[in-house]
Amino acid sequence: MIFVVAEDLIPDSKLEEHPHLGTWGVMLGFVAMMVLDIALG
Predict the structure, then answer these.
(1) pLDDT in the model for residue 33
(2) CA-closest candidate to residue 22, choices 36, 1, 8, 37
(3) How far apart are CA 11 and CA 6, in angstroms?
(4) Model pLDDT, residue 35
(5) Domain residue limits at 34
(6) Helix, coil or strand: residue 16
(7) Residue 11 domain-assigned?
(8) Whole-angstrom distance, CA of residue 29 vs CA of residue 4
(9) Is residue 12 part of a domain?
(10) How many domains does the chain have?
(11) Within a domain: 22
């Protein structure tokens, strides 16, 4: 779901060589945020 939202709402993050790099960055950032939220409670 996060992939679809980031892919559709952030069209400027698409680079010519790697079109999904920005979307994967958003997903990894979200996962890191959730891990830190659980770890630091």
Answers:
(1) 95
(2) 8
(3) 8
(4) 97
(5) 2-6+17-40
(6) coil
(7) no
(8) 15
(9) no
(10) 1
(11) yes
